[in-house]
Amino acid sequence: MSVRIVEVSKAEEKKIFSHLPYRLHSRHPGWIPPPRPMERNYINPRKNRHLTHADTLCLLSYTDGLPSGRIMGLINHELREVEEKRQARFCSFESINDEQTASGLLSAVEAWAKKRGMVKIIGPIGFTNQDPQGFIIEGFEQRPALNTIHNFDHVPALLEKTGYSKELDYLTYKIPIPEKAPDLYYRLAPRVLQRNKVTLLEFKKKKQAKIYLPKMLRLMNETYRNLYGFVVLSDEEIERRTATYLRIMTPEFFKILLDEKEEAVAFIFGIRDITEGIRAAGGRLFPLGYLKIRYEQKRARRLDLLLGAVKEEYQGRGLDVMMALAMLKSAQASGIEYADSHHEAESNTLVQAEMKRMGGFVYKRHRIFQKAL
């Protein structure tokens, strides 16, 4: 095989870079096509503000003259890891099942990062932990959730052959929805509200929830600050994410707890699964993609738990029980069969204990890889 690595710079190369996953995965039964605007916008500085704070390199591979893989290398200067650990990242990695192709892409990014003083590279992980991260290594037969990577099973093996090893695993729990929540939850819930002097808000319409989404995101900024790879959202990003979540949300699965000053102290945010709708739309949102997504979402029987947090001074005071009970009640009333926990860091034993208490079990595992340069 003849392998050629090309740095992406021209408009046509950017188009190939964005479209390549749809071609490589065209016969991949488990793959959910990401919305096509998201793929295009990710490498567009006018749409992705993180590009203005990072050094990036986008590469394409051509094997025997045909596009066969891609990768983005990045050094995000907003992250402490760059200054403290001299650590680069890679993301958007795709490759046919060919060691020469994969090695060519990875080696080029490694050389680029090393030239800029980096001593380690990790991936797949994007500009922040809100981007898709981690290659799936267990649960290939399971349907992916929104904003997660569903790679071919040959990809982790290719990385290991080129010297990569485990950095961090994320676990995803499947939580069957019981006919009735645990009795403990019902006993604790009234005490939690009274003792903490908090108010639980629940919603039936998006316009009711809209004004509370920015409160949720500001609390996320506060509580996620020290999480692996998190970058604090700017006011502009909070406004943009509010609009995004408003489009995909099912309001009955957004719960928020307010203190006496009406400040958010805890929240949980889930949506009815939209992946079947995205698959039906082929990742295209216009002209009919949104209609297909909304139609399939209304029929979905899976609840995707995307975000959740408790303010530090309220942790360990039962607020998580209060929100879990409210979410279980809504799931039961909506005919949901099970919930997908989304990524949980394997080191987060407290959250995992809560998942297990609710009857959850691990059914997917994603891995971020690392290599010393």
Structural key phrases:
373 residues; alpha+beta; Aminopeptidase; 2 domains; 14-stranded mixed sheet; globular
* Overall CATH architecture of the largest domain: 3-Layer(aba) Sandwich
CATH class of the largest domain: Alpha Beta
Query: With helices defined by DSSP (H or I, 4 residues minimum), what is the helix count?
Result: 13
CATH-defined topology of the largest domain: Aminopeptidase
Q: N-to-C SSE series?
A: EHHEEHEHEEHEHEHHHEEHHEHEEHE
Amino- and carboxy-terminal Cα gap: 27 Å
Specify the biggest β-sheet.
14 strands, mixed
Structural class assignment = alpha+beta
The general outline is: globular
Strand fraction equals: 25-35%
What is the residue-averaged pLDDT? 93
Number of DSSP E strands: 14
Helical proportion, percent range: 25-40%
The stretches of 5 or more residues where confidence is low (pLDDT under 50) are none
Write up what this structure looks like:
There is one protein chain. By secondary structure, this protein is α+β, with helices and mostly antiparallel strands. It folds into two domains: 3-169, Aminopeptidase, CATH 3.40.630; 178-336, Gcn5-related N-acetyltransferase (GNAT) (Aminopeptidase). Helices cover 37% and strands 26% of the residues. It is built from 13 helices and 14 strands. Strands 1, 2, 3, 4, 5, 6, 7, 8, 9, 10, 11, 12, 13 and 14 form a 14-stranded mixed β-sheet that branches. 38% of the residues are buried. The mean pLDDT is 93.
